[in-house]
Amino acid sequence: MPFKLKDGSWYFEAVQFVPGRKRDHKANALAMCPLCAAKYRYARDTMDAALIDGLLEIVVSAGEGAVEFPVLISGERTSLRFTGKHAIDLQAALRVAGEER
């Protein structure tokens, strides 16, 4: 999921789906372009609790290719796209990661 820079090198920003958890999990990381990462970090209207509750409510079937998850950013609805495996891993991580720090 990296993005190619003008000099030919690859780049992405790692953003936590839900920041400030007691435990760190690889599944909590999202790979985004720099612009989307900044929007997600600083202009996301969807609260952390709603992210957690919403993702845990999604039923992911075995072998499901992609899962889209709605998020409000600057008052506009957009979607995050996860692979089925990433969504399942993230659901498991959120269940064991505990409350905010």
Give an overview in words.
Helix content is 33%, strand content 28%. It has 101 residues and is of the alpha+beta class. A two-stranded antiparallel ribbon has the order 1-2. The radius of gyration is 14 Å and the shape is globular. The termini are far apart.
Present the secondary structure layout:
Layout (H helix, E strand, L loop, with lengths): L2 E2 L5 E2 L1 E4 L12 E4 L1 H10 L4 H10 L8 E8 L2 E8 H13 L5
Antiparallel strand pairs: 1-2, 3-4, 5-6
Summarize this entry quickly.
With 101 residues, the protein is an alpha+beta fold. 33% of the residues lie in helices and 28% in strands. The chain has helices spanning 34-43, 48-57, 84-96, and strands at 3-4, 10-11, 13-16, 29-32, 66-73, 76-83.
Distinctive features:
101 residues; two-stranded antiparallel sheet; alpha+beta
What is the share of helical residues?
Answer: 25-40%
The structure class reads alpha+beta
Number of helices: 3
Q: In what order do the strands lie side by side in the largest sheet?
A: 1-2
Rg over CA atoms: 14 Å
Strand content: 25-35%
Largest sheet: 2 strands, antiparallel
Shape: globular
Mean pLDDT metric:
86
User: How many extended strands?
Assistant: 6
Low-confidence stretches: none
